[in-house]
Design goal:
Helices cover 5% and strands 38% of the residues. The protein is mainly beta.
């Protein structure tokens, strides 16, 4: 049955493609007429074959053919494809300059492999600029710096796949000339539906999405595999909704323009005298190619000059086509007035909203035929408030929604606006709707007039006239837009009215199928109603905005920050949820804009929605989505909040542990800080304590639950061995449960054993061996150190082993494929962290900085050598073209530090963890002295302690440079006796620190610490002892291993 449904789906796609192939062929010989609206078509579909779709996507500067411009439009950023394994709907194995990018289609249970190449070098797009903020005390340049090269990465929006390794890991930073191979194993229980993919490089996401690097990701059938659609063979049409701005399209220009450009030129210094009138005032607020337009061409935009304030509304009307704006010159200069020209043919508008890159395409169908239209808003920030209109009757049929964000609805649902006749599609949302083609006239999909008492929008304006020189004269005045031209206002931007597509009955008759409100749909959905569940954790998240970065000048318009809980990414509080837990998040919006919130990896249920500006209150919804709109607050004219907008959502973190993000999908907001780290941790944060053996008793390892410190299990890793061992926790088999790794100590063969943390097959947790092997030659009996983290790009954790004393310094990273016990896993990589040293290697692993988006390996030499801590990372990138670097795989060194100076040689214990996670940033590195006073120091690569964040002051090309670690805490926990051992254990807000040392009672005590900031101005933390965990026999600190 599954194979038959797949075949049916591909047959439907093939028929759809044949429907538009003929008109496309005729267009090659017929004269180009931009007034002729094209027949509807869909992007090329690359589909899986034998359960796999493998494709190479290469990002490049390119040109796209738009059906309203006679020649190819330049300055797009597009994705070329090369099909490696799979089928193409048009039969081609490769193609370039596709807009939108190809649709990728795989089914649940299949694999998608994307070799993602960054060819964004040698860029010549003047208004593709660096978003970096300008630091305090520095003059803001008149124009933003052009990017001639650009990093990127890839996000599969809406997929329920692992965020680890080379799956949906949006932390990755792929510089130009490099590539990364992403592998997505689509779960068998993934709902069929419409998802999408796009670049997700923080600070550049909006620009890269706008410039064209987006495509549809179809999991099976995009209607949600509805049984009624299968039974009635209802046609499915996929519509990617975008917009483009081509300045002077009517005059024949063919260059994609960045609509944000006038917002971010610097007019801090107002014009003097007649500088505007004679065209010598700089900066110009015109499009970068204004001089290429014809003499006499006019361009108007909102004007603001002087110190920045809430009165700066530049950009407010950037999505309204110029012909729908009126300019009235000041001082009664009516000769300079430019009235709106709504009679200008739509195809000549400079701002156009498109369907699959087409402008107002014509859908030819059968009279009375019911179809499924999948509407996907893949724009960077545009809201699309759509309505259906039957032209023969003027009727606006209610919109029958059958699915959203890839998930089929349990039952047909109408939107809550205008009696179900209007559907607001926020950026990133996808809706599957059922429509029926009328027998007479057209069915129009349109962004219709907003109505509801909307008022004319008026703002200060400036009008430029191209006089054929480099100094176009300008005049000040006012810009206005009538309510009839406005389809939506999102709190700042306003969006135009426009017809998106027309459907006509060119054949007949078709089959009409009812989709009535409340009608059960009986499709598989992943939705689980949590409205009556008791959340394990409730979080309130405040949304605000302002010039909140204390490292930058407030004269840079680009530096307006959007923040969760008062801090920009990555400095907002860490959201750390436990696997299988239910959490409720309530967003409280005090910023004037609306915010479509997208959560990666996991769908959620909206349980409450309240828009104080309209009084609309809904919830709980009876369906699951991945993108929901937080409404604006009710505000006074000075932006004082009268009542915030509210959105509450609930989700159960069912499937994956790992690090991902939640953010606003108005992507200019995400780029400017409105993004948060979400780290899903195992249901139990277990940690290990080593109890050294004595006469007749072997060394044992106790495993405790970090939440309450109860004993979970005790294991004896090496029979007869009474000496020290090393321990670590990690998810080695990808089941979301922490497993135990133990490395043998001095006097024993260099053996490593791993135990499953999951109870199964009638055996308790930590009773089943996952692996047992010798990591080094049998005569290397100085002991080994162990750690575990995802290093090799898969989605399970690797076992990492460091050499012991007496052996050359070496770290081995073993592959995640665990063979039978007694056989070593395949070696992924090995390297010498401290060349020339043989004192042993101390180890820790973790996500300690944002330089590459990967976990790092933290090392230090053993006692006898200077305690120099080094941080290593394997970026796992390859040069474009697929060539691998020559020689063994080696990591990059991202940082080095000497926590205790050049003279300390007594060895250190290492750990990483999200200590003080409410301050954001990456995990901290913890270093404890094995000797002397036993001082513990904590290092951070950046957090709210440092202000900023400083990352926004850098060109995105430089984000992958080495990390800068700073000491943020130092304390001596055990009165300076016999050194310390350290580990961390995770909580729902970050991590606690475990420290073992010699207690006053003469045994090894273990204490738990939290870290706090003395006040909001403090740049360091103080350790707060939460209590003693346990004590073990022995006069030396107990070895610890945390998560």
């Amino acid at each position: 049955m599954v194979h038959r449904l797949k075949a049916l789906t591909r047959a439907v796609i093939a028929v759809t493609l044949l429907a538009w192939a003929a008109p496309a062929a005729r267009a090659q010989t017929a004269p180009f007429d931009p007034a002729t609206r094209p027949d509807f078509r869909e992007p090329v579909v690359l589909a899986s074959k034998d359960g796999v779709l493998e494709v190479r996507l290469t990002a490049r500067q390119g040109e796209a053919r738009l059906d309203t411009v006679a020649k190819p439009v330049t300055n797009f950023l597009l994705l070329d494809y090369e099909l490696i394994r799979g089928t193409a709907s048009d039969g081609r194995k490769s193609a370039k300059n596709l807009y939108p990018a190809p649709t990728l289609q795989v089914f649940p249970g299949e694999r998608l492999v994307v070799h993602f190449e960054n060819g964004l070098s040698g860029l010549t797009i003047r208004d593709y600029y660096s978003p970096q903020y300008i630091g305090k005390g520095t003059t803001v340049p008149l124009y933003p710096e052009q990017l001639t090269a650009s990093p990127l990465n890839l996000h599969t929006h809406g997929l329920h796949v692992s965020p680890k390794g080379n799956a949906d890991n949006v932390m990755l930073h792929i510089p130009d000339g490099q590539s990364n191979t992403y592998t997505y194993d689509i779960p068998r229980n993934m709902p069929q539906g419409a998802y999408w993919y796009h670049s997700h490089l923080h600070t550049l996401t909006a620009a890269q999405v706008y410039y064209g690097m987006v495509g549809l990701l179809a999991i099976g059938r995009t209607d949600g595999n509805l049984p009624l659609v299968t039974e009635k063979r209802i046609p499915i049409r996929n519509m990617l909704l975008q917009y483009n701005f081509v300045h002077d399209r009517a005059g024949g220009l063919a260059q994609l323009n960045n609509p944000y450009w006038p917002q971010f030129v610097s007019t801090i210094t107002p014009p003097k005298g007649d500088e505007l009138a004679n065209g010598t005032y700089r900066p110009l607020l015109t499009p970068v190619n204004f001089a290429d337009s014809g003499k006499g061409t006019k361009y108007a935009t909102i004007w603001y000059a002087g110190p920045l304030s809430i009165d700066n509304h530049r950009g407010h009307m950037q999505y309204i086509p110029s012909n729908l704006q009126s300019f009235t010159a000041s001082a009664g200069r009516s000769d300079k007035d430019v009235p709106a020209n709504p009679s200008l043919p739509d195809h000549q508008r400079d701002v156009q909203f498109t369907v699959n890159g087409q402008f107002q395409p014509v859908i030819k169908s059968k009279a009375g035929q019911t179809e499924i239209w999948v509407l996907a808003n893949v724009s960077d920030i545009a809201y699309m408030n759509v309505r259906l209109t039957e032209t023969a009757t003027g009727r606006h049929p209610p919109i029958a929604i059958v699915g959203q964000d890839g998930n089929p609805y349990p039952a047909v649902h109408h939107p809550p606006i205008d009696n179900g006749t209007r559907l607001l599609i926020p950026p990133a949302s996808r809706f599957a709707i059922a429509v029926t083609i009328p027998a007479e006239g057209e069915l129009i999909l349109e962004m219709a007039e907003l109505g509801g008492g909307a008022r004319t929008i008026i703002a200060p304006g400036v009008l430029y006239t191209n006089d054929g020189t480099e100094n176009p004269p300008a005049v000040l005045g006012t810009l206005s837009v009538l309510p009839s031209a406005i389809s939506y206002a999102d709190g700042f931007f306003v969006f135009p009215t426009q017809v998106l597509a027309r459907a006509v009955a060119s054949q007949g008759p078709g089959v009409t199928t009812a989709f009535a409100e409340g009608q059960p749909l009986r499709a598989y959905t992943s939705f689980v109603d949590l409205s009556d569940a008791t959340p394990d954790v409730k979080r309130k998240i405040l949304i605000s905005g302002g010039f909140l970065n204390d490292l930058v000048t407030k004269s840079d318009a680009k530096a307006f920050v959007y923040a969760f809980d008062g801090a920009a990414f990555p400095n907002m509080p860490l959201i750390q949820a436990r696997l299988n837990s239910v959490e409720e998040w309530t967003f409280i919006n005090n910023n004037n804009d609306e915010h479509p919130i997208h959560v990666h990896v996991n769908d959620f249920q909206v349980t409450a929605y309240f828009d104080p500006t309209t009084g609309l209150r809904t919830g709980p919804d009876r369906f699951g989505i991945d993108n929901a709109n937080v409404p604006p607050p009710l505000m006074k004219s000075d932006e004082t909040v009268i009542q915030p907008g509210l959105l509450s959502m609930r989700t159960r973190f069912d499937d994956y542990i790992g690090l991902f993000v939640m953010h606003c999908h108005r992507l200019n907001h995400e780029d400017n800080g409105l993004m948060a780290l979400v780290n899903v941790i195992p249901a139990v944060s277990s940690y290990a304590v080593v109890v050294r053996g004595s006469t007749g008793t072997a060394t044992t390892v106790r495993i405790h639950d970090g939440n309450g410190d109860r004993l979970l299990a005790t294991v004896t890793p090496f029979a007869g061995h009474r000496g020290e061992v090393s321990v670590a926790m990690g998810d080695l088999d990808g089941d979301g449960v922490l497993d135990l790794v133990v490395g043998a100590g001095k006097g024993h063969a260099p053996e490593v054993v791993a135990y499953s943390g999951k109870a199964r097959d009638g055996k308790a947790a930590f009773a089943i061996e996952l692996a047992r092997f010798q990591a080094f030659a049998p005569d290397a009996r100085g002991g080994v150190s162990v750690a575990a983290a995802q290093i090799d790009g898969t989605t399970s954790d690797n076992i990492v082993v460091g050499s012991g004393p007496g052996q050359p310094s070496e770290v081995k990273v073993f592959g995640t494929g665990l063979p039978r016990t007694g056989t070593a896993p395949p070696l992924f990589a090995s390297f010498a962290p401290h060349a020339g040293d043989s004192s042993g290697v101390s180890l820790a692993t973790g996500f300690v900085d944002f330089s590459t988006g990967r976990n790092s390996i933290v090392t230090a030499p053993g006692p006898g050598s200077v305690a120099e801590v080094k941080v290593f990372v394997f970026p796992l990138l390859k040069p474009m073209g697929g060539a691998s670097p020559s020689g063994p795989l080696q990591p990059q060194t991202s940082a080095t530090l000497k926590p205790f100076g050049d003279d300390y040689r007594s060895g250190v214990s290492l750990a990483t963890g999200w200590l003080a996670g409410t301050l954001g940033g990456a995990k901290r590195i913890v270093v404890g002295q094995l000797g002397e006073a036993g001082t513990v120091k904590v290092y951070s690569s950046g957090s709210a302690l440092d202000g900023g964040p400083s990352m926004y002051l850098h060109n995105p090309q430089h984000h992958a440079h080495a990390a800068d670690f700073r000491e943020i805490a130092s304390f001596t926990p055990f009165n300076g006796k016999a050194g310390t051992r350290v580990a961390t254990t995770s909580t729902t807000e970050g991590a606690h620190l475990l420290v073992s040392g010699a207690s006053a009672q003469g045994n090894a005590g273990i204490a738990k610490y939290d870290f706090q900031r003395a006040d909001d101005s403090a740049t360091t933390l103080r350790a707060v002892r939460l209590g003693d965990v346990t004590a073990v026999a022995g006069s030396q600190p107990a070895t610890l291993g945390g998560d």
